[in-house]
Known about the structure:
By secondary structure, the chain is α/β, with parallel strands linked by helices. It has one domain: Alpha-Beta Barrel (TIM Barrel). It has helices at residues 52-58, 77-85, 107-111, 113-123, 141-150, 164-170, 177-189, 209-222, 238-249, 254-260, 269-286, 302-305, and strands spanning 15-19, 25-27, 35-37, 40-41, 70-74, 95-97, 128-132, 153-158, 193-201, 227-231. The protein is globular.
Amino acid sequence: MTEVAAVEPRLADVAYEQVECKSALNPVKNMMFSWSLNPYTGCEHRCAFCYVRAFERRADRPSDDRYGRTIRVKVNVASVLRSELARKSWKKETVVVGAATDPYQPAEGRFKLTRQCLQVLREFSNPTAMITRGPMIIRDVDVLGELARRAELHITFSIPTLDDEIWRRTEPGTAHPRQRLKAVEKLVTAGIDVGVGMAPILPGLSDRPELIEDVVKAARAAGATGLWAAMLHLKDGTREHFMSVLDRHWPELVPRYERAYRDRAYLPQFFGESTMHEVARLRSLHGVSDRRRVILKPPPEPEQLSLLN
């Protein structure tokens, strides 16, 4: 009988630490956007490949299996945001919600800080973008719909793969990808601009053409307004945890990753070039746009992430 490696449970014991923030809007440099907003610090989704683990390590916070077990809840974030948007110096630049944590992680069901912030952004008709893996966003379709009528709004749903095994083992705290697709469809039906981010693509795992095509076809069926993709990157902090997950579930791939990512965080272009060409081919075949808005590519460097928390 084949021994099956244990999978980290989707729901884990999490401690919530309620804190007051001094600022809500975070200036970001060298990115596709200038301002971010994160109602929470830390993320219960605990994705094995999350680039925020790299910053957590640099900040002397856990980046291993303990990451995502303590969430800092910025209880006053909406009121601080209102004060900042009311300033005469504010130029109504796009605010990206969820650059360093998922705004619709389970904590949102209890604290509703993302909804409160969206209500403030709606009040000021401020351009907004979001990235999430959380179908809970459907709860706020009323606020999102009104915001979309007043200002530019774009939402990206992160759906790296539809493969059950890869999803369970690399995204332990997230809802099933098909639940996310249902959320995409509902948001699109409500008149909201929603795209899919197929990232990160994992070499030797989710880069198989048939798995890529599954996501592209599903995105089109859900009515997504575009799809973009990016390969996995591994900075210190993320690298150690991801490699431990790889060793636990796919040990035969460890040597391949050690060669590909030796002394580097980003996959050399020639390693991922054929995969990205395949994504482009499948987008064209299935009539899915590659149109991208202001969402996270390339991912922030750790020193930039200090501005995202």
